[in-house]
Amino acid sequence: MKPAAGRKPATRPTRLVARFVAISWRDLAVSFGPILLIAVAAIWVAVRLIQPAPPSTLTISAGPQGSTFWNAAQKYKEILARNRITLNVLPSEGSLQNLQRLSDPNSNVDVAFVQDGIAPGAASNGLMSLGSVSYVPLAIFYHGPTVTRLSEFKGQRLAVGAEGSGTRQLALALLKANGIEPGGATRLLPLSGDDAAQALVSGKVDAAFLAGDSAQPAVMGKLYRTPNVQFYDFTQADAYTRRFPYLTQLELPMGAFDLGKNLPSMPIHMVAPTAELVARNSLHPALSDLLIEAAREVHGKANIMQRAGEFPAPLAHDFPISDDAARYYKSGKSFLYRLLPFWLASLADRLLVVVVPLVVLLIPALRLVPSLYAWRVKSRIYRWYGALIAIERSALSDHSAAERASLRQRLDAIEDSVNGLKMPLAYADQFYVLREHIGFVRARLTQSRDTRRDGWRDTSGDDADEESAAAGAGAGVSAAGGTDEARPAVRADHAGERNRTPSAAPNEAAEIGELGETGDEPRDEAPVQRRRPSD
């Protein structure tokens, strides 16, 4: 039985319009876009948190012109000018006015010298300390017999310092602790400095409280040598320092005024608050370091009341030590400021705040870009396989001509879309694999189900004919006694029958069997009629 002649399936002319490019910039932009947004967000957060560039101008409230703190502020000005920072020095009446200026948000004062003990509770005003810069020793000189307790000055005339001065604040606090308050029998006169010393020498006052500039070694030595004037020895200094935590017990050593004459001839106990360099909490960290360096250069030298390098020091009394100052006292200047000039180090320090988050975020994120890019490109290919599988499964079922035409239209639409893709050259192989699969589905769709069945029947009939021919040839050979010429003829006929068998039918039957279709459908071919070999 010979196979039926199959019709050649109609082919649809296609035109490849796909564009191949070296790289898909659109996919690269989509892949890199989220990472870029994250980087921009990180930069924005860093810029919001980063300190601005340090200002080039500062204002300090020092003290009376010619005073110790005024002179110290002038030295600060020279030191800061080395780093192109301008320091404006404002004169003041003393620590109390300095503190008022710092606490006033409308003033332009950034930093000031403030004596401890005059501002209890001022730490809540947004102020911080850069450290103590010097002692402010309290020296008391008096007329008359030896006095061992401050309470013995009751009822006398006392020069306790000018109004608003730190000396007056300290003197009133100590006298109050001994039961002496303004308005009583004791006269508290607002004299300070040279005026107080002259009043004591002339006998206009019985005792003078001197601190700061008034208690310089030269002034104290002059008064110590004055007849009928004695230097008060704080024998209760330890008790005072415990009751007033901002006070420090000091000892004026023997021979401090004159080694040759051994003046004083015995150590004298004194108490002293410290002067702090107080700033607003908005002070730039870089300027904080510069101010502490200036304080170390100005106040770090030795004198009769302190050792070299003792100041500045992070001694927190009325004001908390700032974080930047604490860091400086612990580890010194940062690496950049030790290595680079001030302004260049400041710029590099701020850039690091931006660069470090970028490096931390971008390096891992950039490793994802190739994977995201490949996924974007491959997704344009893989997205069509779901539709192809659905069409192929539908092609293996019984359909009307209209339904098959609809399937072909769907396949044509897929092919048109695929042929219009824009693909990078690196993925051209996957593009052509997809086109091969589209052609495979089209071939299965154009082959009718009946054609596959006929091919399967022809294959079965040919196998039966071959068996019959083989049987007849065997019988003929037996009847004739067997000849060598008959065997090749039989083999030739057998081979001819095999050559006439369609090659596609077994393959199609195997494919249908793989999809589970042939076992479920009845076979309607007629039984093969075997012919008897003729006698």
TrEMBL record:
<feature type="transmembrane region" description="Helical">
    <location>
        <begin position="351"/>
        <end position="375"/>
    </location>
</feature>
<dbReference type="Pfam" id="PF16868">
    <property type="entry name" value="NMT1_3"/>
</dbReference>
<keyword id="KW-0472">Membrane</keyword>
<feature type="compositionally biased region" description="Basic and acidic residues">
    <location>
        <begin position="520"/>
        <end position="535"/>
    </location>
</feature>
<feature type="compositionally biased region" description="Basic and acidic residues">
    <location>
        <begin position="451"/>
        <end position="460"/>
    </location>
</feature>
<keyword id="KW-1133">Transmembrane helix</keyword>
<keyword id="KW-0812">Transmembrane</keyword>
<dbReference type="InterPro" id="IPR011852">
    <property type="entry name" value="TRAP_TAXI"/>
</dbReference>
<protein>
    <recommendedName>
        <fullName>TRAP transporter solute receptor, TAXI family</fullName>
    </recommendedName>
</protein>
<feature type="compositionally biased region" description="Basic and acidic residues">
    <location>
        <begin position="484"/>
        <end position="500"/>
    </location>
</feature>
<feature type="transmembrane region" description="Helical">
    <location>
        <begin position="28"/>
        <end position="47"/>
    </location>
</feature>
<feature type="compositionally biased region" description="Low complexity">
    <location>
        <begin position="469"/>
        <end position="483"/>
    </location>
</feature>
<feature type="region of interest" description="Disordered">
    <location>
        <begin position="451"/>
        <end position="535"/>
    </location>
</feature>
